[in-house]
Write a structure and sequence with these properties.
12 helices; 4-stranded antiparallel beta sheet; alpha+beta; 2 domains; disordered N terminus; elongated
């Protein structure tokens, strides 16, 4: 009986085999051969039905068809069917076997009482109550447990705030170092509008590009960071090699220090590393500018 409870009435009505028969007559299938023909006859028989307030009968319908009518609200428990044995109209609900097939009872759900599980997160009665001020202090990172988070965030903010001004100064010094030796040529280009002359002096183009990057840094344009990294790699690769080939060790050291510092300043948010690179980069690019003034 247990596995049949809760099935739809249409599924009940379509189960015509011996071992799938639901309802109170199921035990008879395996023990009583007299009941077997009657049980199967219930499904294959056809019935005329009508509503109590109607005079005209409908049908004949099989049990599955009547089940379809019930599903579509065209029949119910009070619908009458014609009982040939009684020779009278009888409500479907009065026929036990027919009722169990068409209106199977659903299993009642029993709710279990809630079991209180032992939890590791037991409230510590002896622990002091947390005040509102303590909660606000924890949110602001002012307690011992959260102070390290605030300290780290503050350090990163200071590093980010320092990077752009430091990069701006480095690129300004680099631009001056590249433009100053050819300032007279740049003046001729501007006066005579002979822009093709710049192609014969690539350092002037690089110097103007450095001044443009310096302006971006002072305006806090962080989108220029990829260009700064590219410029740093060009300075480290090309100019370091040129100065090494010429035997100019001071210029080599200055270019290396400045280029590496520019690259790291665009990558790190470590405050101490940012300070070291800012000092080294400004010193290196400043040294280049001084050497350019000295000729």
């Amino acid at each position: 009986m247990g596995k049949w409870v809760g099935l739809k009435r249409k599924e009940y009505a379509k189960m015509a085999t011996m071992d799938q028969w639901p309802g109170p007559v199921q035990p008879c299938f395996s023990t009583c051969p007299i009941c077997l023909p009657a049980a199967q006859l219930l499904l294959v028989s056809e019935y005329y039905i009508r509503q109590p307030e109607e005079n005209e009968a409908r049908g004949p319908y099989t049990v599955p068809k009547i089940s379809d009518l019930i599903e579509s609200d065209k029949a119910n428990r009070e619908t009458l069917y014609y009982d040939e044995e009684k020779e009278d109209w009888v409500p479907i609900v009065d026929n036990v076997n027919l009722r169990d097939v068409l209106f199977p009872e659903k299993q009642r759900l029993n709710l279990k009482a809630k079991e209180v599980a032992n939890s590791l997160n037991q409230e510590d009665v002896a622990a002091p109550a947390v005040t509102v001020d303590e909660m606000l202090a924890a949110a602001e990172g002012k307690t011992e447990d959260t102070k390290h988070l605030t300290t780290k965030a503050t350090s990163m903010e200071r590093a980010a705030a320092l990077s752009l001004p430091a990069l701006g100064i480095m690129m300004l010094l680099s631009g001056i170092a590249n433009v100053y030796p050819g300032i007279s040529i740049l003046q001729t280009v501007m006066d005579d509008k002979e822009y093709m002359l710049l192609l014969q002096h690539p350092l002037l183009i690089l110097g103007v590009f450095d001044l443009f990057l310096a302006l971006c840094c002072f305006l806090s344009v962080t989108d220029a960071f990829p260009l700064l990294r590219f410029r740093a790699m060009v300075g480290l690769g090309y100019f370091a090699y040129v100065f090494w080939a010429w035997g100019e060790m001071p210029q080599l050291i200055a270019v290396a220090a400045g280029s590496i510092s520019v690259y790291i300043c665009t990558m790190t948010l470590n405050l101490y590393l940012m300070l070291i690179c800012a000092v080294a980069g400004i010193a290196g690019m400043g040294a280049l500018a001084v050497l350019a003034f000295l000729g």
